[in-house]
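Example A, followed by Example B.
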Amino acid sequence: MTLQEALLVLADGEVFEGEAIGAPVEVATGEVVFNTVLSGYQEVVTDPSYAGQIITFTYPHIGNYGVTALDDESRRPFCRGVIVRDLARRHSNWRSEDDLDAFLRRTGVPGIAGIDTRRLTRYLREAGATAGAFGSGDEATLLAAARAEPGTDAIDLVAAVTCDTPYTVGDGPRRVVAYDFGIKTTILHHLGKIATVEVVPASTPAADVLARRPDGVFLSNGPGDPAMVAGAVDNIRGLLGNVPVFGICLGHQLLGAALGAETYKLKFGHHGGNHPVRRIKTGAVEITSQNHNFAVAEGSLDSADVTHVNLNDGVVEGIACRDVLAFGVQYHPEAGPGPHDARYLFDEFDALMARGA
């Protein structure tokens, strides 16, 4: 197969040469970040939290076990593209239904392979997540596009990924309303074991949620800046004290903001499946899956206790409210495909709903 030459150009003029994969494109732009997972590339690509971003996979060999619809985390990918060192041309796995390149083409996701991803990752660790452009276009065109790319700051990306109308999943005994800020399918699988879950659009007013008489409310993961999610903080404030609340990732940040905490953007974010997090209550260290660029500022929250801390950089990874039944974690306890160290948090949500009954 003849491959088309392509370029990746960052906003400061840094250039990487490669070959086009996935959906054909002359110019694709986005905020370039890196993810350190060794497996689970399909779950990463289909995670709505990557809206507005181009995903660099640090693991050099991607696509070796193909793809299956069973591993999709959303109705379609929302990322702007993928960057890999070596795209496997042959896939081998009994669950596989197609190869990764065909999946990218079918879902309209462009990509670039043959990139020195180690060099790129080292660059991003120094410069931080940065705007970039890639494709078959010439260097000058790509540079201009990269410099025009706004990134993910001060943009409501949730509006592009949330559902249009409510829908119901699961058959557990409790009733949960889940805000869809970009919710992952694996989260719904776990919630569906403990509750019948009604998923509602991100803009749903608190009064409408409470009118559904839920046993608990879940605040989902999602992309971008928590300060830009229209109406979310006010809605969460309307829920606190009236119903138990559990938030993951962006939902955790929004919960913190509703309680008065500050949020801020990390230099290059946390994206991977191997982040060590210490659970303060027990001292146990959990290996966690993470995907976020923003975080809750330590020391900015008076009404909640920090429950989990990232051992790599000290970032707040969990909070629990003192006066109301609510808690959140920055990382992903559902962790498709893994690790599974933190799945107990869904049981804790179940126990919190029992207390609120």
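Example B, a separate protein, is given below in the same form.
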Amino acid sequence: MAGLTTGLQLARAGINVLLFEKKKYPFHRVCGEYISLETEGFLKSLLIYPGKFNPPIIKRLQLTSVNGKSAVLPLDMGGFGISRYSFDHFLFDRAKAEGVAIYEDCEVEATHFEDNQFTLKTAQKNFTTDVVIGSFGKRSKIDMQLGRSFIKKRSPYLGVKYHIQTDHEEDLIALHNFRGGYCGISNIEEGKANLCYLTHNDNLKRHQSIKEMEEHVLFRNPFLKSIFKNSTFLFERPETINEISFETKNPVEDHMLMTGDAAGMITPLCGNGMAMAIRASKIVSELAIKFCKDPSYNRLQGRLHASVG
């Protein structure tokens, strides 16, 4: 999300942008799929607020405990719900229409910086560029190549996501706690809900499968048991991601500017990582545009490549 939004802003500033994505749009990601309404004005200013999807507006927060206690609180600013599948694809189409050259099924495998220029290595060919913006998510080959400190440590967290059809109030986001983790549920577009949870890997190790873990651990929270028992699950299998790290990350590595999850993960239970990615895209775009447009850097010829995925 940070990479697509950044690429869009740079292209509108007249900068040539290449964007690399190792997958092919559209696709699902493990994500809470809730965006704070603080982003609304900015997204509308860029003509990328996803209003055509009629995203549900979320104004209340429910917190539940393992033993079934519950509290519902107002969310002063609130947010809206939309799947990454739909929103990323929407941003992808807008970025292409604005002139961003997007390479799908193309992973940047390595980078090299020398004499004020980058070389990006992909399976197809190598690219040279003056600026690289890293927006490759929670962990990638580039993290390993750079030897970033967080990638050297094992992380004990697992993320699991489903899309479901269920009886969940449209304006409510709920965080249901269980031993060693928590599960969020909120509505997204087309009458669906996003069910996404974070858990310690020890929970999975004690059981033979995700399904068994859910039945023995998550179901101890009666709210979660009811959701799992009374919902239609829309995926053949859950989306998962392992080794989620919440270690501090440097915003600049080997002259690359990091943004989104590549620059740092938000603390569990806080949420709003999508809004943070959008905000980060604004910050990094303003810096990159100034760098490329400044007459003292006219040797750049306005070239910039955003590396995503």
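On Example B: The radius of gyration is 20 Å.
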